[in-house]
Amino acid sequence: MEKRQALNALSGMLFGLGLVAFFDETVFHQLLHWHHFYDKSTTDIGLVSDGIFHSFSWFATIASLFMFADLRRKNAFYGKRWIGGILTGAGAFQLYDGTVQHKLMSLHQIRYGVNILPYDLVWNITAAAMLAAGIFLLVNTRQGKKADA
Question: What is d(CA 124, CA 139) in angstroms, rounded to the nearest whole number?
């Protein structure tokens, strides 16, 4: 039982990480052109770094969906635990991105040429809220019953 619960959480975390990374790449990098994954070089290097980042998010998402399908096939899917994993993975990645990549490593900022404080606050508070909600669900489903999917 514990292995199945762990796999539900892990599958959800990978899906959440891949989903929020895919959203970040699509919206902020491609549609709005606010930044690249790595902004300390040429535009070409920035585009290559975006491609690597996009590949990472895509592989995480695909791996999570294979795990999801296997859990469903084995009748071992726990919906609330999986949702908890999604929120935990999405929140953890977004908080890591907003603190480590944006501030500590200075790979890029959310946006340039504006006061970034409101952007940072929204990004990191949203991340912390997703992370807290995900952890709450994971803790409360540790010994929970199988949820309908």
Answer: 22
Say which amino acid occupies 31.
Answer: L
Section 21-32 average pLDDT: 83
Q: How many angstroms separate the CA atoms of 123 and 105, rounded?
A: 17
Q: Which DSSP string do the residues of 106-120 spell out, in sequence order?
A: -S--S-SSS--HHHH
| Contact (Cβ atoms closer than 8 angstroms) between residue 25 and residue 53 | yes
CA 25 to mean position of chain CA atoms: 11
- Mean pLDDT along residues 25-29: 81
> Which residues have CB under 8 Å from 97's CB, separation 6+?
24, 123, 127
Band (149; pLDDT cuts 50, 70, 90): very low
Residues in Cβ contact with 20 at an 8 Å cutoff, skipping those fewer than 6 apart: 89, 90, 93, 94
Q: Could you tell me which residues come within 8 angstroms of residue 62 by beta carbon, excluding any fewer than 6 positions away?
A: 18
Give the pLDDT band (50/70/90) at residue 134.
Answer: very high
Cα angle 17-133-10, degrees, rounded to a multiple of 5: 40
